[in-house]
Each structure stands twice: as structure tokens, then as C-alpha cells.
Amino acid sequence: MNLRILLILGALSAFGPLAIDFYLPSFPTLAKAFATDVEHVQLSLAAYFAGLSIGQLLYGPVADRYGRRLPLLVGVSIFTLASAACALAPSLEWLIAARFVQALGGCAGMVISRAVVRDLCDPIGAAKAFSQLMLVMGLAPILAPVAGGLLLDWQGWQSIFVCLTLFAALAGHEPLVILSGALKSLAVALMKIANDLRLLGSGPRAGFAEVKLPANEPGSSIMPGKVNPTQCEALSMLACQVMGNDSTISFAASQGHLQLNVFKPVIVYNLLESIRLLADGCRNFNKHCVAGLEPDAQRMADLLERGLMLVTALNPHIGYDKAAEIAKKAYAEGTTLRAAALQLGYLDEAQFDEWVRPEQMLEAGHHG
């Protein structure tokens, strides 16, 4: 077995132990970041071992059935995506779940690397290869905590999982493209959230104005009294940049010949920027916008009272034709359903209050 293959197999074998020991120095920092104790943080390690145990039972039969390449690419991709999810974790529960998934992907390299040795070597050669692979298994628990501690002091606990993401992704370009696509999907969702909040907070009088945005930057040169949706706009610009980075990564990954691709620095740079932008953007958007959101209950009550949809609640009691006449009158005169119904004399106030109850119309099985 040549040195290149041996190094690749060694890197694949290192997935499991590296992900176990690399983040151990960050336990106190994680406990502080998630406002909990180290004992609860250790659940993320237990979740990883659980995923590792389950995954190793699956990859052997799957690799024998479908070949080595496909399960390996799937496992490395899962490990890459889960490592990025760990870096973006907003809570301990998220981190625990991501660690479990990370282990399911990481054990693919551990299992399939041994299967490849069996495929390529005779018994004596396999014994030599396994002894060399065991060096990796022995060195990783020694070096990983030291490297993890240095990263922790330098860039914080998120950098540990960013490095794990890159370690897995550099095994090939496909995981990088898949990871970038997942980040783009997240950016699309964030863009939608930002635009929806900006629309629902538009006003103060001409728009929906159903949501009160935090007054971080109140006032406007052209609209006094307006609360500018700057956090929504910042998040949407950030999401746009991540989408652009994905296009760059997709094009860069398509270049080169065989495994020679000089665009890899461009891929890594844009991927790191996307991860950083999404992590910082989500954190700041939550702190400066989401945490301060308030519904404008009075505004929503006014809109609901003037809405015409509620007339359907009257259909079972006075019939469709009379209900439609009430709605048309309310629309034509710019008044409420209540006022139009009382003017037409089809029901009294007590009946309207009893029959037109919006909260009941939201219940399953309500007819009206």
C-alpha cells in the first residue's frame, strides 16, 4: 500500500477520535455559553458515543452492498454538515443532537478505511497497514486536546467545530459543495424570516404594523415615528452574501482535473465566510430584534374586527345570501360586519357576539 492511500485512510480513521477529544477542553466554556454546568455539557459526549455505536453497525453491511465510495461520501458529508451545525449551535440541546448526527457520519471513515485495507492487502500487508493506522488512533487522543485548547483560547469554542468541518470537507470537494448548499438553504430561510418581519412591522399607519420592532434605530428623515427595520435589512444582506458565496463555491468546485483543483482556497475562504456570517448574523438578529419583538394586539384586533372573512360564521344561522349581503354592505360603506348586520336587522348584538367568535373559528372541526 502506497503512502498516499495510507495517509488518506489514516485521516478517515481519525474522524472518530479527533471529534471526541478535540473539544474536551471547551467543556467549561460551553457550560458558560449555554448557562448550564459541565455535567450537562457531557451529554454531548454521551450522544456522540451513542451515534458512534449505532453507525458502526450500519456502515459495514452498507459498504459491502453498495461499494466503498458512496457510503463514505455520504458519511463524510453528514459529518461535515453536523460539524457546521455544532459550530452554529444556539443551545445545548442543539449541540447534543448535532453531535449525535456527527458521530453517525464520522464512523463511516473508521469502518470503511478498514474495509479498504482488507480489499487492497493480503493478510501480511493488512497487518502492517492496521499497525500504522493504529498510530493515528493513538496520536489523535494525545494531540487533539492540545490543539483544541489552543483553538479555544484563540477563537472560541465555535472554531473547534469549524476546524472539524474543514477537516472532513477537505477529504473531497463534494462535502464542501453539500455544506455550502445547506448554508445557502439556511440563508434562504433567514431571508424569508427577515422579509416577513419587515413586512409585518411596516408602518406606523400605512403598513401592516402588526408587529412592534425593537426601537434600536427609531426615526427617519422622511417618516417621523417610524422604527427602521435595520436588523431585518442587515440579515437579508447577509443572507444574500451567503447565497453568492454558494455560487462561487459551486463554480470553483467544478474546476480542475481529477483531484487537482487550484480553486480550493477560494472554496475554503467563501465557506468560512458563510459560516462566520450566519453565526454572527443569527446571534445579533436574535439579540437585537427577535428578543424585543412584540405583537401589536390592538392593531390586530382592529384589523380582525374590520375583516370580512368572519361573516362565514353567520352562514349556518342566517343563510349564505343574507351573510353575503352583510359583507357587501360592510365593504361598500367601509364599516364593520357588526354595524352592517345591525343596520340590516338580520340579528341583534347578542346574537352577533354569540355567533361571530374568531377564536372558535380556529378550532378543528368548526363549521361556519
TrEMBL record:
Highest taxon of source: Bacteria
GO terms, molecular function: fumarate hydratase activity; transmembrane transporter activity
Transmembrane segments: 43-60, 72-90, 96-117, 129-151, 157-183
Keywords per UniProt: Lyase, Membrane, Transmembrane, Transmembrane helix
Pfam family name, one: Sugar_tr
Compartment(s): Membrane
Domain called Major facilitator superfamily (MFS) profile: residue spans: 2-368
PROSITE patterns per the UniProt record, alphabetical: FUMARATE_LYASES, MFS
Keyword Ribonucleoprotein part of the UniProt annotation: no
Family: Belongs to the class-II fumarase/aspartase family. Aspartase subfamily. Belongs to the class-II fumarase/aspartase family. Fumarase subfamily.
Protein name, per record: Aspartate ammonia-lyase
